[in-house]
Amino acid sequence: MTKLKHVSELDEETLFIVSQTFKALSDPTRIRILYLLSCSEHSVNGIAEHLGLLQSTVSHQLRFLKNLRLVKSRREGTTIYYSPEDQHVMDVLHQMIHHAQHD
């Protein structure tokens, strides 16, 4: 197991990435999108339809998640499919969902 650095040893870039990741996970819409993508890849339209969201809302949130490298995309013809890029973050998301649902 890797030892964590003492808080005073965290550099600014690490602090920024961690805070932005938690920011991404603090939004219910982004959580719903990430959870859906953790089950299988989807296109923007597929996400919008499945979650009952506007396509523009999904596109905006995916752009935010992609900039943080939490999701990745692949093109198939004219359709772009999204899936998780960072399994560590997906593990944290699933753990928090399990925690919230735990009796």
TrEMBL record:
Family matches, as CDD domains: HTH_ARSR
Keywords: DNA-binding, Transcription, Transcription regulation
Keyword set includes DNA-binding: yes
PROSITE patterns according to UniProt: HTH_ARSR_2 (PS50987)
A GO molecular-function descriptor: DNA-binding transcription factor activity
UniProt superkingdom: Bacteria
Domain HTH arsR-type: 10-103
NCBIfam families attached to this UniProt entry: HTH_metalloreg (NF033788)
Name of the featured protein: ArsR family transcriptional regulator
